[in-house]
Design brief:
Elements: H1 11-21, E1 26-31, H2 38-51, E2 56-60, H3 67-73, E3 77-78, E4 82-86, E5 89-93, H4 96-102, E6 106-109, H5 125-134, E7 138-144, H6 152-159, H7 169-173, E8 177-181, H8 185-193, H9 200-208, H10 213-241, E9 254-257, H11 265-278, E10 282-288, H12 297-305, E11 309-314, H13 318-328, E12 333-337, H14 343-348, H15 352-359, E13 364-368, H16 385-406, H17 415-429, H18 432-449, H19 462-511, H20 515-530, E14 534-539, H21 540-547, E15 562-568, H22 576-588, E16 592-593, E17 605-613, E18 616-625, H23 634-683, H24 685-701, H25 707-738, E19 747-748, H26 751-765, E20 770-774, E21 783-784, H27 786-802, E22 809-817, E23 820-827, H28 860-870, E24 874-878, E25 887-894
Parallel strand pairs: 1-7, 1-8, 2-3, 2-6, 6-7, 9-10, 9-12, 10-11, 12-13, 20-22
Antiparallel strand pairs: 4-5, 14-15, 14-18, 16-17, 17-18, 19-21, 22-23, 23-25, 24-25
Protein name: histidine kinase
Catalytic activity: ATP + protein L-histidine = ADP + protein N-phospho-L-histidine
Membrane topology: Multi-pass membrane protein
Length: 895
């Protein structure tokens, strides 16, 4: 029913449109077979746009020697090809880097399914197209329907020719425009016979094989269907974006089961075709069972290329897990391969197909025959090969020896339990198949040696016959059960080891104190997992930012260049070829190198470390892997994936911590700068005003002034200038302390004598003030810098006199407390408010004052703290100390 209420555009459709607008457009000229005119049609449209003023460039056009195609190029510019030396030959390929530098408005790139020459950046041309689109370049290309991934199997059945070069369905689905270039099969055959497609000798072979009228008609129908599907998708997308009500293709959902090994391709291709025909979403599921060793990776990768939503789960009951997933995702069709189950499962009806047929009554099952069904590899045994079979007779012989020793002591029937124990042991160490053989051998030994009549294979009594039958049944059950338990235990051990490895790695990453240690921990763990070299690379700006925090940002740098930051072993340095893969992986945020489709000849594989910054996922580094084993290791791949996640989080956390520390340092610097400017305005104005006033008075009225007045003015100038010099010296002291330029010259110091001398200097500067001493002799002599200590004591005493009444008393004392020597200065002034006490040693801090107390610069106690810390001591303030008044400053130095 059409919608009657107000409608809004579909947000998902709008988001998809916005995502496409950020990339270069892709137009595909699709044909049913070679020679229909795809390239000529593409060139004709390109010439029309070129004549209208568009910047059109030919990246590569395959003319195949056809005069019609060569003439269609016309005046269009062509990009020079890149020469690649391969096995003594020089191959010419499309120059991707040159195209990225040239950046035309439209680039023509023929034959989308082409495989690039070894040594190219990408193994497939469609990957070149993706990189061009990521760079914002519009690409026009051509392809035949037989090269579509989901059509390859059907084309092989129709034509008898299996196409080696395929293009993922996602490329056609993601194209902005698809144009079908079509001619009737009869006309195409006429062109073939006229030599307009292939040379005569090649045309004859094609007419006998691929170019048969029936096959061409089938290919034409397939191309029309694919184009019709695309048109329907375009119409539906337009309706969703523009909120146009209409019929919606809902209801059907296709689920494809991905087996381990290499049998997934026909299942996924047929499921994709049905999903396209039904306009239904394609789902893909792989159920991993304990002990399974077949790698589902290729099947999952193919499912993703075909646009399926993939999921991996773990279960012991395969049928239950499949049905639960199908019901949860509302699937209506289930595709699975026929496979090659053991004969006894087929006889007993215990195959997956029969189980689903019995229980999946609400689903439509599609069983896909496999041209060469891949047998799933059996789980590994504890003992390999013939070693496992040798264990069988040895354990049966051991059981027989035990029975011989017990002969006459226990009933003959009890010997069956001994042999059962041997069968269980065989199942545990070798597997259920070997346990079955062991059960047969054990039964023969028991019957021949211990069941009457002995030394024959006959059984005399019905009781012994029943015992023998029970023995065989129990032995078979025990063998199967023990084998399954063994597989489950081994699988659980593998997962437990992986979990422990992740837990250990997490603890190690969290415990590392520095960024360098964290980086080293990541590469060491990666090297241990893959059994080969590993390295960590960061972009140049990231590396500099971690080395010199706060001085480099990505906005100020050139395009990212990967820099080696850590390696295990230390000499594991990627070569120039590997670094090319690293640069591509870093620039594109995708894996490159060994085992990928980009620069697969490299010995290294580089996987990006991703983080979310400013709402976007970016690759901020690369983990390089160089495994020694050529064969893929699924367990190692899963461990590396987990490592990548944890390493990315840990490294990003370290970067954010550095950023936060830099922000705090900048904030503190800004606060210090503000305080300095405030202090400059406050502390320089008063002495400068006094000096200026005295100088002006002496200049204008000096001769008329009495001698005493002139002397007072000169004294004012001298005192204020001294005050300014002292203040500037304090500023320099703060700078030296902040930059670590203060280096104490240590020697044993008599602290009582140092206090006495400092008190005498202060009394000379403040005549009439009282300083009481309590300076016992015989105290330990800590190793201090006498000059720095003198400055500290004079500053503290000067501060005490300044913040006490004119008739107040200052007390100084020394004493020993444990392993420390204390120097104490007390005053009887108003004290320090509790709120100000924690900040009394901060630079430019001034305590609350009264009118009778002169303001200071706020640097004295801050300088004291810096000097005391440089000498290895501590300084503390207490207030009040008696009757709500007074302040005590304590200097504490180790002996």
């Amino acid at each position: 029913m059409p919608a009657t209420g107000p409608t809004r555009p579909d947000p998902d459709a709008l988001a998809e449109l916005a995502a496409r607008e950020g990339r270069g457009r892709l137009k595909v000229f699709l044909g049913a077979a070679p020679g229909v005119g795809k390239t000529v049609e593409m060139l004709a449209e390109a010439r029309r746009l070129h004549a209208a003023g568009s910047d059109v460039l030919i990246g590569l056009v395959e003319t195949h020697g056809r005069a019609e195609t060569e003439a269609a190029i016309g005046t269009l510019s062509t990009l020079p090809l890149r020469a690649i030396a391969y096995r003594g030959q020089v191959l010419h390929e499309f120059d991707l880097d040159a195209a990225l530098v040239r950046r035309p408005a439209i680039l023509l790139l023929d034959e989308l399914a082409h495989s690039n020459a070894p040594g190219s950046r990408h193994s497939k041309r469609w990957q070149d197209v993706e990189e061009l689109r990521d760079a914002g370049i519009e690409v026009w290309t051509t392809m035949n329907v037989q090269h579509l991934e989901s059509s390859a199997e059907a084309v092989a059945r129709v034509t008898g020719v299996r196409v080696a070069e395929t293009v993922p369905d996602a490329m056609l689905k993601g194209a902005d425009a698809v144009e079908l270039v079509d001619i009737p099969p009869a006309e195409l055959l006429d062109r073939m016979r006229a030599g307009k497609i292939y040379p005569p000798e090649q045309a004859e072979r094609a007419l006998r094989g691929f170019f048969k009228e029936g096959a061409l008609a089938a290919l034409r129908e397939l191309a029309l269907r694919r184009t019709a599907d695309r048109v329907d998708a375009d119409v539906t997308s337009w309706m969703r974006r523009n909120a146009v009500a209409g019929p919606w293709p809902v209801g059907d959902r296709v689920l494809a089961l991905i087996p381990g090994g290499g049998a997934a391709e026909p299942v996924l291709q047929q499921a994709r075709r049905l999903a396209d025909a039904l306009h239904a979403p394609l789902l893909a599921l792989h159920v991993e069972r304990p002990g399974q060793q077949a790698d589902p990776g290729p099947g999952i990768a193919l499912a993703q290329q075909l646009g399926a939503e993939t999921e991996v789960t773990t279960a012991t009951d395969l049928t239950t897990a499949i049905l639960a997933h199908a019901r949860a995702r509302r699937a209506t069709h289930i595709f699975l391969g026929r496979g090659d189950p053991p004969w006894w499962r087929r006889v007993l009806g215990r195959t997956l197909i029969s189980a689903l047929a019995r229980r999946a009554t609400e689903f439509t099952l599609h069983v896909v025959p496999s041209p060469a069904a891949a047998r799933v590899a059996a789980p590994p045994r504890h003992l390999p090969g013939w070693t496992a079979w040798l264990v069988v007779p040895l354990l049966v012989a051991a059981a027989t020896l035990v029975c011989v020793m017990l002969d006459g002591m226990v009933p003959d029937a009890a010997f069956g339990m001994v042999y059962l124990a041997a069968v269980v042991a065989i199942a545990a160490v070798a597997g259920p198949l070997h346990a079955g053989g062991g059960a047969m051998l054990a039964f023969l030994a028991w019957n021949f040696l211990f069941l009457p009549p002995r030394y024959t294979l006959t059984v005399a009594s019905a009781q012994d016959v029943l015992g023998a039958v029970v023995f065989g049944v129990v032995a078979a059950l025990l063998a199967g059960t023990t084998g399954r338990l063994g597989r489950n235990v081994r699988a659980a051990a593998v997962r437990l080891a992986a979990l422990r490895r992740l837990t250990t790695l997490s603890r190690r990453l969290n415990a590392e104190a520095s960024v360098a240690e964290l980086q080293m921990a990541v590469v060491e763990e990666a090297a241990r997992i893959i059994g080969g070299p590993s390295c960590l690379l960061l972009p140049l700006d990231e590396a500099l930012a971690m080395t010199l925090p706060g001085q480099f940002t990505r906005d100020a740098m050139l395009p990212a260049e990967p820099v080696l930051r850590a390696a295990s072993p230390a000499d594991a340095v990627p070569d120039d070829g590997a670094m090319a893969a690293a640069r591509w992986a870093l620039a594109n945020g995708r894996a490159a190198g060994r085992g990928t489709a980009t620069l697969p000849t490299s010995a290294w594989r580089f996987v990006p470390l991703n983080a979310v910054r400013n709402g976007e996922t970016v690759a901020f580094g690369l983990l390089g892997l160089c495994p020694k084993d050529e064969a893929p290791d699924p367990e190692a791949d899963r461990a590396v994936e987990a490592l990548l996640d944890q390493a990315a989080v840990a490294l990003e956390r370290a970067r954010l911590a550095d950023t936060a520390a830099n922000a705090r340092a900048r904030s503190q610097t800004e606060a210090l700068r503000t305080a300095l400017l405030t202090s400059l305005g406050h502390d320089l104005r008063t002495p400068l005003t006094a000096i200026r006033g005295a100088a002006e008075t002496l200049r204008t009225a000096g001769a008329a002034l009495p001698e005493a007045t002139r002397a007072d003015l000169l004294t004012t100038i001298e005192e204020e200038a001294t005050r300014l010099a002292r203040w500037m010296s304090a500023i320099l002291d703060i700078v030296r302390l902040e930059t670590g330029q203060v280096v104490p010259r240590r020697e044993p110091v008599d602290v009582a004598q140092a206090l006495e001398e400092a008190a005498m200097h202060i009394q000379q500067a403040h005549p009439g003030r009282r300083i009481l001493r309590d300076l016992p002799t015989g105290l330990p002599r800590p190793r201090l810098d006498p000059a720095l200590l003198d400055r500290v004591l004079e500053n503290v005493m000067d501060n005490a006199l300044k913040y006490s009444a004119p008739h107040g008393i200052v007390r100084v004392a020394t004493r020993r407390e444990g392993a420390d020597v204390l120097l104490i200065v007390e005053d009887d002034g108003p004290g320090i408010p509790p709120d100000d006490l924690p900040r009394v040693f901060d630079a430019f801090f001034r305590a609350a004052r009264t009118d009778s107390i002169a303001a200071g610069s706020g640097l004295g106690l801050s300088i004291c703290r810096g000097l005391v810390s440089a000498m290895g001591g501590r300084i503390a303030a207490e207030s009040p100390i008696a009757a709500g008044q007074g302040t005590r400053i304590t200097l504490r130095f180790p002996q």
